[in-house]
Design a protein that fits this description.
Layout lengths: L13 H12 L1 H9 L3 H8 L3 H29 L1 H20 L4 H29 L2 H15 L1 H17 L2 H21 L13 H12 L2 H30 L4 H29 L1 H24 L5 H27 L6 H23 L8 H17 L6 H6 L1
Length: 404
């Protein structure tokens, strides 16, 4: 007789699960965002170039992408809980390297190790939600997760700016190390194991076969590319905006303050998903989000090309654009992960890897353009937003998504 897959263990509660996943998932975005206001200070300390400094962002994103690619299948094979805990330990090592970095090369190595560790929380959180919920509820839970998680990344640039000005850029990594210890203790005590025990499909060969099968499905590739384009716009903007603000004579903390608008826009988009996803439908929310993203990108490029370089003209269109992204991204993610009910970790890995790799390429590519002007970043935003909108016409209809 063939053994059947056992159901996942129930989490303590939806609310506690969201908090648990939020604090572990937020480690990556917080680490990125709290560091961004310090980029000009780190550049001056080590005497490197803007392009050189951008490698501490782009290579970290590449390492994050590779970590995502590895952690998902590992969590399918060995369980969600051990992979998250191991990731937090790796994160601690990276923080120590950055804190005591005697050279730019050691700092760069620390940033890479940090990213490898924080990748675990992002991909395993999606896999755990895929373990427990169907597509529609998963989209709502992802939106709730983002709403809770967004608090840390939202205040991180503001905190990073003030901490850098008051204590120096190294103090950022001391703060991250302390937060890492608290998160590890919380996860060790409360993190549940949700992976389904499947004696037939848990081997490495079986996982590899299912992963390759996913890559051959046009619907999955289409969703992955949509998610990657959304993320590339966001990531390119937040990595270039600190230089723009500095060139315009604003302090590091000013970027953090204006960034709050962008985070608020994304938060409100996610809030709409939690309240109205079932009534409006996931596919319609994806379409609406991508249309809003394109419209706001066009508005932003018109303003900056016209010479309106006040922070309000730079950040308000991006805030409204982020609202559209908040409508689309949870539904894109849920639709993609739901296509692989037996191996959600591997599906989440491939989705996240595509996002991070495209984002890293976008960040490094933007380094070739003048960092003191908001025009290049908004031209990039319009081009990518247009491509994302056009992809709607090649995507399957709702019935095809439901059937996988």
């Amino acid at each position: 007789m063939t053994a059947e897959a056992s159901p996942p263990a129930p989490p303590p509660s939806d609310r506690l699960l969201i908090v648990l996943l939020a604090v572990t998932t937020a480690a990556g975005p917080v680490t990125m965002n709290i560091y961004l206001p310090a980029l000009p200070h780190v550049q001056a300390h080590f005497g490197t170039t803007v392009a050189g400094m951008n490698t501490t962002v782009s290579l970290a994103l590449t390492a994050f992408a590779l970590g995502i690619l590895v952690h998902g299948p590992l969590s399918d094979r060995y369980g969600r809980r051990p992979v998250i805990l191991a990731g937090l330990l790796i994160f601690a090592v990276g923080n120590l390297l950055c804190l005591f970095a005697p050279s730019f090369e050691v700092l760069l190595a620390g940033r890479i190790v940090q990213a490898l560790g924080t990748a675990a929380g992002v991909v395993v959180a999606r896999a755990m939600l895929g373990d427990l919920y169907g597509r529609e509820k998963m989209a709502r839970m992802l939106a709730y997760l983002t709403m809770v998680m967004v608090v840390g990344p939202t205040v991180a640039p503001l905190v990073g700016g003030f901490v850098t000005e008051a204590f120096g850029w190294q103090s950022i990594f001391a703060l991250l190390l302390a937060a890492n210890a608290l998160i590890f203790g919380f996860a060790w005590r409360h993190m549940p194991e949700t992976r389904r025990a499947d004696p037939q499909g848990s081997g490495a060969a079986a996982l590899a076969r299912e992963s390759l099968a996913m890559l051959r499905r046009p619907v999955f590739l289409g969703l992955a590319l949509q998610a990657a384009m959304i993320y590339a716009i966001f990531l390119a903007f937040i990595s270039i905006a600190p230089y723009v603000m500095s060139a315009l004579g604003h302090r590091a903390s000013a970027y953090g303050t204006w960034y709050l608008l962008v985070a608020l826009g994304y938060f409100l988009g996610n809030w709409i998903v939690t309240r109205h996803a079932s009534r409006i439908g996931l596919t319609r929310l994806i379409s609406l989000g991508l249309v809003i993203q394109l419209a706001c990108a066009v508005a932003g490029v018109v303003l900056v090309v016209a010479g309106l370089w006040h922070p309000a003209a730079i950040f308000i269109p991006m805030s409204l654009l982020a609202f559209g992204q908040g409508l689309a991204l949870p539904n894109i993610t849920a639709s993609a992960v739901a296509l692989a009910p037996r191996t959600p970790g591997s599906a989440a890995s491939m989705l996240g890897f595509t996002q991070q790799l495209v984002g890293a390429l976008a960040v490094q590519g933007m380094a070739a353009f003048p960092a003191g002007s908001p025009v290049p970043i908004y031209v990039f935003t319009v081009v990518v937003a247009l491509a994302a909108w056009l992809s709607l016409f090649a995507m399957p209809r709702e019935e095809a998504l439901r059937q996988g």
